[in-house]
TrEMBL record:
GO molecular function, one term: identical protein binding
This protein's GO CC annotations: cytosol
Record flagged with keyword Mitochondrion: no
Cofactor dependency: pyridoxal 5'-phosphate
Name recorded for this polypeptide: Aspartate/tyrosine/aromatic aminotransferase
Any GO BP: L-phenylalanine biosynthetic process from chorismate via phenylpyruvate
Family the entry assigns: Belongs to the class-I pyridoxal-phosphate-dependent aminotransferase family.
Transferase as UniProt keyword: yes
Length: 394
């Protein structure tokens, strides 16, 4: 039977990682994969995570199954982190998932169960895995304009115009903060305008929030999500702890479904548990438990926030350095958008042949759509990248 399988398209980012590995040039620079790296190029375990893991090792006396929706303490802690007091807790159904990817997958499945004809509106561009999973599930996708290649910012008028064509029963997928792959984000009044369109059309928002704390701060990065969640009757939120807790491989995420009455909440809660059961049964617990311990312990929480803030400021500083260096070398402000972007990524807006030239001529690796991981830079490589960008004619 296996001969019937068809080769699947290779994941472009993983293929890029392999090419980087095979490149013998010592001066090569990896701006590809979406993992935070400190200026030494390492992705260390965060201090609070290590401390919580040590405590867990000492005190955990069983590894028996938890619940199908994971530990309710984890749900409570993460709902609090993402939503604050924006939404009545009694209206939020939640289930732990394997990472933010798992949360997105379960959210799409929930939508499909509720309405197999639902269309999902996605930003152009969006995280490629959104498209890949939606296509795998056979769901209809509608693109809405998002990135303005000219300005490096959001094409807000285009976005609103496209979202107006959504109908009741459609889903609008939004990035809560730190848009991947562009780095361009909505300000709060733009979020409000999106809320108005959602209310007018009756479309259901789904917010993917995978970088809370990487942009303008933990509270600031959740502001758009909180505004939407508190303004519309139904909302889905897929949250990831991979980046802000640095626990990528522990697969820690939460899917939240907000509705308007306790009966709908119960139905959502039961459906989320059912969907987990069908796909993987019990969600992973280790990362979720570590996150819960950190969020519930004042000292650990304070230390985690401090380290996360260092990470955020390091990336912000690199953005500014790169924008300044390009300004200095090119004598123009056309790269100023790099300092305005937030999160780990920026889309440079370069054509694929330029991205290839950066790789072949300079050993600089970024994704083909010119998305670069800002955290792949440091004080030494910023000037090298700036020079190379101008060298290849971007
Ligand atoms: N959503 C977006 C937009 C992302 O960039 C990512 C990570 N690349 C995720 C979700 C999910 O990440 P994970 O499954 O590792 O938590």
């Amino acid at each position: 039977m296996f001969e019937n399988l068809k080769a699947q398209p290779a994941d472009k980012i993983l293929a890029l990682m392999q090419m980087y590995k095979n490149d013998p040039r010592p001066s090569k620079i990896d701006l590809g994969v979406g993992v935070y790296k400190n200026p030494q190029g390492l992705t260390p375990v965060m201090r609070a995570v290590k401390a919580a893991e040590q405590e867990l090792w000492k005190t955990q006396d069983t590894k028996t199954y938890v619940g199908l929706a994971g530990d309710p303490g984890f749900s409570d802690a993460l709902i609090d982190l993402v939503l604050g007091d924006a939404v009545d807790r009694d209206l939020v159904a939640a289930a732990a998932t394997p990472g933010g990817t798992g949360a997105c997958r379960q959210a799409f499945e929930l939508v499909r169960m509720a309405d197999k004809d639902a269309r999902v509106f996605v930003s152009d561009p969006t995280w490629p895995n959104h498209l890949s999973i939606l296509s795998y599930l056979g769901m209809q996708v509608v693109n809405y304009r998002y990135f303005d290649d000219e300005t490096g910012g959001v094409d807000f008028d285009g976005m609103i115009e496209d979202l107006k064509s959504a109908k009741s029963g459609d889903v609008v997928l939004l990035h809560g903060c730190c848009h991947n792959p562009t780095g361009a984000n909505l300000n709060l009044s733009e979020w409000q305008a999106v809320v108005d369109v959602l209310r007018d059309t009756g479309a259901v928002p789904m917010i993917d929030i995978a970088y809370q704390g990487f942009g303008d701060g933990l509270e600031e990065d959740a502001a758009g999500t909180r505004l939407v969640a508190s303004s519309v009757p139904e909302c889905l939120i897929a949250a990831s702890c991979s980046k802000n807790f640095g626990i990528y491989r522990e697969r820690t995420g939460l899917l939240m479904a907000i509705s308007q009455d306790p009966d709908a909440r119960k139905l959502n809660q039961d459906t989320l548990a059912f969907l987990n059961r069908q796909n993987f049964s019990f969600p992973p617990d280790h990362g979720a438990r570590v996150v819960t311990m950190i969020l519930q312990d004042e000292a650990l929480r304070t230390d985690w926030k401090a380290e996360l803030e260092d990470v955020r400021l390091t990336m912000l500083d690199l953005r500014q350095q790169l924008a300044d260096e390009l300004q200095k070398l090119s004598g123009s402000d056309r790269f100023g958008f790099l300092a305005q972007h937030r999160g780990m990524f920026s889309r440079l807006g370069a054509a694929p042949d330029k991205v290839e030239a950066l790789r072949t001529e300079h050993g600089i690796y970024m994704v083909g759509d010119s998305r670069m991981n800002i955290a792949g830079l440091n004080g030494e490589t910023v000037p090298i990248l700036a020079k190379a960008i101008l060298d290849v004619g971007i």
